[in-house]
Amino acid sequence: MRCAIRRPLRLPVLFPLVTALLAGLLAGCATVPDRPSDRARDGRPAARWQPRPGTAWQWQLSGRVDTGVDVPVYDIDGFTNSAEVVSRLHSSGRKVICYINAGAWESFRPDRAAFPASVLGRSDGWRGERWLDIRRRSLLRPLMAARFDMCRAKGFDAVEPDLADAYSNDTGFPLTAADQLAYNRMIADLAHERGLAVGLKNDLEQIPDLVGDYDFAVNEQCAEYHECPALSPFVAAGKAVFHVEYHVPESTFCPIAKRLGLDSMRKRLALGRWRSPC
Fold it and tell me: Which CATH fold topology does 25-277 show?
């Protein structure tokens, strides 16, 4: 659970001046209304939610969810929170994102026995977790589909699939960028088939290829690693970037976030109720 193992980008990511200018126009931390995405892939109107830049959020993956934070979006654990919690947040006008781990097996989840040993790799650095062999899409697809079905059944509006950049980590498998793209597109399709929005977690190098497949982004520590401009394609497309820092002070990263149009806050690594937004 929680965040991916961080690493700097392999290559500097540069964007045209027009992207930076557009990001500046969209900058700010004020809450603005969300909107449905305009079109499904077959051209028909789509009803799923799509958060816009400037949407404040709360991310709480540990402890009892504090439903009293005055923000329009909550991102909470899909397994440990009930439909009643989601309903209570909806009754207060909130949208709710379902956190699930799409890149690693977790020994503490109720579906742990459904994952065959052949897809389990090395530890991802968190106790009780092992990387998944994302090349085995035919095996992993029904398992992830079942998790997304759970999110939909509980009433969530969207999913946050964690560990979406396995190919850039030491997983025990010879994963490639192409493997990751194929897997991440499968994940996006599974969400959209269920009417759920989906956020791209980290995976900065593949944003240019995946921004059209995902409805928003979730990022950790882009300011600490000097990577925040890589998220500009989401903002330029009118899609929110939900961003957190753990170690960098607000006085350092909030000006960057405002300039780029990121929806940012500082959190503690435990991802409890505490937050310090821009």
Answer: TIM Barrel (3.20.20)
